Amino acid sequence: MSGQSSKSQGTAQGPVIAARGLTRRYGATAVVDAIDFDIARGEVFGLLGPNGAGKTTTILMMLGLTEISSGEVSVLGFNPAREPLKVKRRVGYLPDAVGFYDQLTATENLAYTAKLMGLARTERARLIEAALSRVGLADVASKRVATFSRGMRQRLGLAEIIMKRAEIAILDEPTSGLDPQATQEFLGLIGELKAEGITVLLSSHMLDQVQRICDRVALFKAGRIVLMGAVPELAVKVLGASFVVEVEAEGPGIARRLALIPGVTEVETLAVNRFRMTAERDVRPDAARAVVAVDGALRKLSVDEPSLEAIYAHYFQAQPMGDVRHAA
Ligand SMILES: Nc1ncnc2c1ncn2[C@@H]1O[C@H](COP(=O)(O)OP(=O)(O)OP(=O)(O)O)[C@@H](O)[C@H]1O
């Protein structure tokens, strides 16, 4: 990684990707509409949003694979529209459907890419072997890719990114169509990329997975970024709270008493004697006192971070015409 980092123009502290007013129009329609964002080195950044919101088009502009109508994006200090090859050399891209040669083996596929990339012949075998072993494909290195499952193809895609020692990995819906075990393994590999300082940008509809692995997310809607930040920040912004406390308790007027606790923004009755509170702080001690105060019986008290799913659902329900641009 270090050899390539020194060649690129992105500074150690500055963003590795910076978009300003980035726009893509088809005819009169802006499918990506003047978006701004910065992504720091080593960050795992999630692009979220409904189908057609503009996530893939944004990715393609970063890679120089589709025209930029106006605005700009800088990737490791390069302009992908003017220097697509410099970007391509340093950025790994795993599209939704990874294209490999089915009749070639895993090793042969990587060797082909390595040659195209101009990797030194003496280095190729070692890099390919190390990359395949990193993603757990060493045992099937000599098998034709035609025999690979989707999970194995996805891992081969990551091996290619590792082999080329990319500084940034861009993954479009990387876990869609994977079974739960393959998903877990793949998320683990993304965590390893992050641990090595590789910046990861991924688009996904799997909100629980995104919440687990992403440092920050951007929520796209009709070509615009309507929310951006870390999940706890977004929880405060959208739900007005960063804690979810669940209470199971029996006693008179408990819901009303819970709602009176300072810092509680909402109390939902989930079932008889089951309540969910959203709050600005961890209100468990106050909730316990509220139950005891009415001689009630406390059965369960738990605290959690609000889910990205709740934020997403709340945002789209509460703001059908939402246009809180660049809210972070
Ligand atoms: N070549 C094209 N010509 C016209 N419109 C296009 C073209 N490519 C994409 N679009 C439109 O741009 C919009 C954004 O598409 P994009 O693929 O970026 O969305 P997305 O957020 O990645 O969606 P998904 O979650 O389905 O992958 C869509 O309305 C799509 O129909």
UniProtKB/TrEMBL annotation:
Q: Which residues form the ABC transporter domain?
A: 17-247
Q: Which SUPFAM superfamilies match?
A: P-loop containing nucleoside triphosphate hydrolases
Tell me the keywords, alphabetical order: ATP-binding, Nucleotide-binding, Transport
Q: Name one GO molecular function term.
A: ATP binding
Q: What job does the chain carry out?
A: Involved in beta-(1-->2)glucan export. Transmembrane domains (TMD) form a pore in the inner membrane and the ATP-binding domain (NBD) is responsible for energy generation.
Member of which family?
Answer: Belongs to the ABC transporter superfamily.
Q: What is this protein called?
A: ABC transporter ATP-binding protein
To which species is this protein native?
Answer: Bradyrhizobium symbiodeficiens
